[in-house]
Design goal:
Layout lengths: L6 E3 L6 E5 L2 E5 L11 E5 L3 E4 L5 H8 L18 H15 L4 E2 L3 H9 L50 E7 L4 H5 L5 E2 L10 E4 L15 E4 L8 E2 L3 E3 L3
Parallel strand pairs: 4-8, 7-11
Antiparallel strand pairs: 1-2, 2-5, 3-4, 5-12, 6-12, 7-9, 9-10
Amino acid sequence: MANIQPVTVEKLSGMRLKLVPAGELLMGEPWFEDSRPAHRVRISRPFYIGIFPVMQKEWSKVMLTNPSKHKGSELPVENITWEECGELIKRLNEAARPAVFRIPSEAEWEHACRAGSRTIFSFGDDERDLALHGWFSANSKGQTHPVGQKKPNAWGIYDMHGNVCEWCADWFDREYYRHFCGDETVADPAGPETGFERVLRGGSWDSDAASCYCGVRSFALPETKKPYIGLRIARDAMQ
């Protein structure tokens, strides 16, 4: 299902989102301690996700600030805390009514990243092809780059392998996959009920190739601000 439709536009900031279908995926990455074991997950409802990470011009329209270290209107916003992302979502929902926007769960994020693939990257298993699809330490020259310059995945979603890591809604627990995963498929996992750090996904301009795999997860305290951490928004699909 290539380049799935439709696209919707968030009216306040102009962010574009694409509908992601419900479906199943093998979530996780067995080569990394914090990302194993791989386990079967079902996303039971379609949802929208940003075609790009949130750009600085979009963040600024809503938040009236630009905290990014690397400045540029079409660069991904970065240097933002998880709490600040929550404030962005709050303002988007106040304008939308009813509330439909949110930070994606890490299961939703990985489903959107994989785009139906079962390989370590959405485009295959060969790290030599990563430079065609993302900005990472080997090609970024130590900075972010305008969104959408690299190839999208099969569902028309860009910059999921690098450029900036992206906050997810879930609390992080390195034992969570082991605790809940088993032989049965888990529907719509939302992560641990409590924790200290939040999940990050996607790798960044400062990451090696392996950190940009679909299933690799990292984490940070919610108050963390780094020039390699950004956000991609999600939205409920109207039923």
